[in-house]
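<context>
A single protein, sequence plus fold
<entry> Chain with its tokenised backbone below
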Amino acid sequence: MLKEIVIAIQSYFKAHQFISKHKLWKWIIPPGILYAILFFIGLYFFWNSADAAVNYLSQVTGIEKWLHRQHSAALSFLFIMGGIMVRLILVLFYFSLFKYLFLIIGSPLFAYLSERTEAIIEGREFIFSFKLLFKDMARGIKLALRNIFWQTVYTVSILILSFFPLIGWITPVISLFVECYYYGFSMLDYSCERHNLSPSASIAFISKRRGLAVGNGLVFYLFHCIPFLAPSYAVIAATISLYHQNLE
């Protein structure tokens, strides 16, 4: 798995060289700027709502008043850490919802970029087809909805675990890796679909190569230092990382 994560990370460097060499910036910058604007606006409102939700919950349960009566620095520290962990998980959940919304809206672009990337690598002429594009879009949306369901199940389980002291402190890390896996999964599936893998076959194939999915999603998150590059770089990197894999 570690080797696959390294391959996925290296694919981002190759993606940058690939984009520069083949002058694909017009497919990267405009949608990337839109992504960055929507992301930061949504993050601002979600962080405020998550903070308000945690404060409301602590007031309703009376835990703050109880902590004041205990006069215990250790208990107060545990409560503060628990609140931070809950907020972090909620923010990661926001990432998840926003990501899937953008995946659904941007599915035509991602399907196009993945197919064009493979055509350039193979040195063949890229023939645009609306029929194939809509087919890829439908497949991407269907799997995105499937992944929303399963990731929500895992996130709720992790959120419950976050309320437990000490153990709950590692839950944001667990949540991050779950999030990375499902985002990378979505990016890799465009290549799987193009090689005629059914949704179930694609799920089985990517499950055996979790490292590629986790690595792709992990760099995607790091790319949020320059967020407008994140989504398109991710799909091109995923296509490159899967190109030499046996997709039959």
About this structure: Residues 48 and 87 are 10 Å apart (CA to CA). The chain has one domain: 2-243. The two ends are 21 Å apart (CA to CA). The chain has a mean pLDDT of 78.
